[in-house]
Specification:
The complex is a heterodimer of chains A (244) and B (93). Chain A is mainly alpha-helical and 244 residues long. The radius of gyration of chain A is 20 Å and the shape is elongated. Chain B is an all-alpha fold. Chain B has one domain: Arc Repressor Mutant, subunit A. Chain B has four helices and no strands. In chain B, helix 1 runs parallel beside helix 3. The radius of gyration of chain B is 25 Å and the shape is elongated. Classes of the chains: A mainly alpha (244), B mainly alpha (93). Chains A and B meet through helix 1, helix 3, helix 4, helix 6 and helix 7 of A and helix 1, helix 2, helix 3 and helix 4 of B.
Chain lengths: 244, 93
């Protein structure tokens, strides 16, 4: 299918019965949940345990996302360190109009992109220029019948993974490595969505706020990213899918 | 293999469409009409059922992948910075 974003937004509309995930917001104008509010009070009081908790909660995802914008792990670590410093210094000024998480990730993205631009002038690093082409097919088109009565149906369907539940996948270092490699290889605009939504568990609405994209856009990108990781796991489990 | 649709006059959705819509379906980002068509197709198509299950597995595994950890030296520096910042007179609430 071409111009999937057009087809996608035309035919899908938001479910009216989305479950309330996480805690209720205090009010429409206040971005903080009750848990956030409590944490913020502790942080402002200088509670080191609370700060440790905050860092532990978000550090991994911040690093992974930063890697989408900058050249290497060392630079990503610096960017995230700068981010935490900015969080510490900005706590007094933080008004709670967004969640703590939205604020923290917003700071990181700003710093990472800034650093990425500066890096670009000195290196030939091109990964952060590789944005996913929206005209690319999400799923390898050769997996589907191209013509005839069954056009659009599987030509080479996925084989069930049977008992390859998350637990089993996580227990295999090779599967974990395959997934991590697939994530790292993602272009920035797909990586940022996958990290926020699936790795960090941010709700769709908040992810859209952080990234400044629409929900339709989010789901298109999210699915592209997930498909790439799925394909990497499939390759690891079965070898590359045979297409003639 | 004949597939039923919620609306007999509507063309059956293809496996390709099901695959494209999988994430929206899993995250409940679809209207009821689409959900029904997806569910009907999945009930009759082993390939698509496998695909949806795989995407769900990926999603669930991603949430539990061990991630980059903060090395102790950096953690100490941050803690120090935090203490210094919070002990400044103008920062007490």
């Amino acid at each position: 299918m071409n111009a999937d974003t057009t087809t996608f937004t035309g035919t899908l509309s938001r479910s009216t019965s989305l479950p309330l995930v996480g805690q209720a917001r205090l009010s429409k104008t206040c971005g903080l949940t009750e848990a956030d509010d409590l944490l913020l009070v502790k942080l402002k009081k200088g509670d080191e345990g609370a700060f440790d908790q905050l860092v532990d909660r978000h550090h991994g995802a911040l690093i992974r996302m930063a890697l989408g914008y900058v050249a290497d792990r060392e630079v990503a670590e610096e960017v995230v360190q700068d981010t935490w410093m900015a969080v510490v210094e900005g706590l007094n000024r933080f008004e709670g109009r967004s969640s703590l998480r939205t604020w923290i990730f917003g700071i990181m993205i700003h710093k990472a992109k800034d650093r990425g631009v500066r890096e670009k002038r000195h290196t030939t690093f091109s990964a952060f220029e590789s944005y996913d082409d929206d005209n690319d097919e999400t799923i390898d088109p050769s997996r589907f019948q191209q013509s005839g009565e069954w056009a659009g149906h599987w030509a080479f369907p996925p084989q069930p993974w049977d008992d390859r539940t998350p637990e089993k996948l996580l227990a295999s270092q090779q599967a974990v490595d395959a997934m991590n490699q697939a994530i790292e290889a993602l272009p920035a605009n797909l990586k940022e969505v996958l990290i926020l939504r699936d790795v960090e568990g941010v709700e769709a609405k908040e992810a859209c706020e952080i990234l400044k994209i629409t929900e339709s856009n989010l789901y298109v990108r999210l699915h592209r990213a997930r498909e790439r990781v799925r394909r990497a796991v499939e390759n690891y489990l079965q070898g590359p899918a045979l297409t003639v | 293999m004949a597939l039923n649709s919620a609306d007999p006059s509507a063309p059956d959705i293809t496996c390709r469409e099901v695959a494209e819509w999988t994430s929206a379906y899993l995250d409940a980002h679809q209207d009821d009409a689409h959900k029904v068509r997806m569910a009907l197709h999945l009930a009759a198509c082993a390939g698509c059922e496998a695909y949806v299950n795989q995407i769900a597995s990926v999603r669930d595994t991603l949430g539990r992948l061990p991630g980059p950890i903060l090395d102790p030296a950096r953690r100490d520096r941050l803690r120090q910075q935090f203490s210094v910042q919070r002990s400044k007179p103008w920062s007490t609430p």
